[in-house]
Write a structure and sequence with these properties.
The protein is an alpha/beta fold. The chain folds into 2 domains: about 100 residues, 3-Layer(aba) Sandwich (Rossmann fold), CATH 3.40.50; about 180 residues, NAD(P)-binding Rossmann-like Domain (Rossmann fold, 3-Layer(aba) Sandwich), CATH 3.40.50.720. It contains 12 helices and 12 strands. The strands form 2 sheets. A 7-stranded parallel beta sheet has the order 8-7-6-9-10-11-12, sandwiched between helices. A 5-stranded parallel beta sheet has the order 2-1-3-4-5, sandwiched between helices. Helix 1 packs parallel to helix 12 and helix 3 packs across helix 6. The chain starts with a strand and ends in a 6-residue tail after the last helix. It binds D-malate. Pathway: Amino-acid biosynthesis; L-serine biosynthesis; L-serine from 3-phospho-D-glycerate: step 1/3. Keywords: NAD, Oxidoreductase. It comes from Ruminococcus hominis.
Length: about 300
C-alpha cells in the first residue's frame, strides 16, 4: 500500500481515485507520492521513499525539477486540464480592461442609500463609458493549450487575432482557427496589437520578456494581460508604463504588491484555474497519472 500526501487542497474527485488504493498521510516524510497545486516546494527536503510528484496544474516552477531529476523523482503536470477556466478569465480580463464594470459596481455600492438610485446612475454613467473589443487587434504570445483557446474565443468575439509561437505543436496547429494571423516575430505583436496576452511558461528565455524594450515597441494605450507567470513581466517597467499611460491597463492574475495599487492595474489573486471544473479536471488527471506510474510504471505528462 502506498502513502500519499497533499500539499494543497485537491478536489475530492481526484482524491477518491487515490483513496481506493492508497493511504493519505499527514506527514510528508513517509509519502511515496505528493499531490500539489501551487505550494512552493523549493525548500523542502524529500524523503527517500518519495517516487513521484503530481502538480494539479500546468506550471511546474514551484517544484525543484533539478533536485527531483537527481533523486529519480518523477514530476507530472496536467497540461490543458484547466485551460478552459483560464481562457474564460482572460476573456473576462479583456472585458474588464475595456468596460469600467468595477468602477460602476463600486459607484453603486457607494450610492446604495440614494432614494432615487436609478436617476443618480443615469447621471453618473457617462464616467464609466468604455470601448468594445470587437474589431480590435489581439496578440496572443504562446499558442499552447490556453493560448489556442483564447485566440479562438477572441476570433468568435470579432477580434482581429495575431498569434505568435516559434514552436507550435501539431496538436495546437490543428485546433487553431484559420482566421488567426501568424505573426513572424514577437515584435510584430508588440507593434500591431491593441491587446496583448501572454501564454508561455516561465523559462530562462521568457523571464522578463515584457520589459522596457518590449513596452517601448507597443502602441500607446495598449492593454497587456498576464495570466501565465508573474516573472514574465518586468514589474518596474510595467509600473512605469502604467504611470506614464503608455499601458492603459495591465491585467494580471498574480498579486504582486508593487503593482496592486497602481492606477490602471487590475490584479486578480491567481484565480484563472479556480473553477470547480478545472479543479476537478486537474485533480483527476494528476491522480490518474500518479496511479499509472506507481502501479504500471507508465509516465505521461512528465
Ligand atoms: C497552472 O499552472 O495551471 C495554475 O497555476 C494552476 C493553479 O492555479 O493552481
Amino acid at each position: 500500500m502506498y502513502n500519499y500526501h497533499c500539499l494543497n487542497p485537491i478536489a475530492q474527485i481526484g482524491l477518491d481515485i487515490f483513496n481506493e488504493a492508497y493511504q493519505k498521510t499527514d506527514a510528508v516524510d513517509n509519502a511515496d507520492a505528493i499531490l500539489v497545486r501551487s505550494a512552493a516546494m523549493h525548500d523542502m527536503e524529500f524523503s527517500t521513499s518519495l517516487k513521484a510528484i503530481a502538480r494539479a496544474g500546468a506550471g511546474v516552477n514551484n517544484i525543484p525539477l533539478d533536485k527531483c531529476a537527481e533523486k529519480g523523482i518523477v514530476v507530472f503536470n496536467t497540461p490543458g486540464a484547466n485551460a478552459n477556466g483560464v481562457k474564460e478569465l482572460v476573456i473576462a480580463g479583456m472585458l474588464l480592461a475595456s468596460r469600467d464594470v468595477i468602477g460602476g459596481i463600486d459607484w453603486v455600492k457607494e450610492h446604495e442609500a440614494d432614494a432615487d438610485l436609478a436617476k443618480a446612475a443615469e447621471k453618473a454613467k457617462k464616467a464609466f463609458a468604455g470601448t468594445e473589443i470587437q474589431g480590435k487587434k489581439l496578440g496572443v504570445i504562446g499558442l499552447g493549450a490556453i493560448g489556442v483557446l483564447v485566440a479562438n474565443a477572441a476570433v468568435h468575439l470579432g477580434m482581429d487575432v495575431y498569434g505568435y509561437d516559434p514552436y507550435v505543436s501539431v496538436d495546437s496547429a490543428w485546433k487553431l482557427s484559420r482566421n488567426i494571423h501568424h505573426a513572424k516575430t514577437v515584435d510584430e505583436i508588440y507593434k500591431e496589437c491593441d491587446y496583448i496576452t501572454i501564454h508561455v511558461p516561465a523559462l530562462d528565455s521568457t523571464k522578463g520578456m515584457i520589459n522596457r524594450d518590449a513596452i517601448q515597441l507597443m502602441k500607446e494605450n495598449v492593454v497587456v494581460l498576464n495570466f501565465a507567470r508573474d516573472v514574465l513581466v518586468d514589474t518596474g517597467a510595467m509600473v512605469e508604463a502604467l504611470e506614464e499611460g503608455k499601458v492603459r491597463r495591465y491585467v494580471t492574475d498574480f498579486p504582486i504588491p508593487e503593482i496592486a495599487g497602481v492606477k490602471g492595474a487590475i490584479v486578480i489573486p491567481h484565480l484563472g484555474a479556480s473553477t470547480e471544473e478545472s479543479e476537478d479536471n486537474c485533480a483527476v488527471m494528476a491522480a490518474k497519472e500518479l496511479r499509472d506510474y506507481l502501479e504500471n510504471g507508465n509516465i505521461t505528462h512528465s
